[in-house]
Task: structure prediction
Amino acid sequence: MKFRIATLNDIDAIQALRIEMLKEVAEYLPGDLPNAIHEYLNAHMRDGSCLCALMENEEGIVGKAMLCIYTVMPDEINMSGKCAALFSVYTLPKYRGRGYMKGLLDYLLEKAKEAGVSEVFASAEKKAIPLYQRIGFTFQENEMSIRL
Result:
């Protein structure tokens, strides 16, 4: 299995994997979602605020993981304020359970570190929590969110 950072030439493949992932977890997908995903990737991969790592073999791209990079006010722990949110982590079903995603996430986090990211946040489906913990993620008791 080979890992690499996606380029703009990979947008269609990333979009297709994102849709496959959402089909597994969502009851409904809006018809214009593929276009919205394409526009997001084009804008944010171009400006560096979306870092996407791909997993591929001789059959093509079989998995991906993405970081949405942003900056917050610096504090005593994160002097740069550079953070990222891990999202859209997905492996095609026939490649699951083989440990490939750990390798891809390790690779992506190393690339994020090289880009100056100091802190990565994630939310995960229950089945992915052990993987995230093996990589080093810890639970934060005071994290909350609200959908607007």
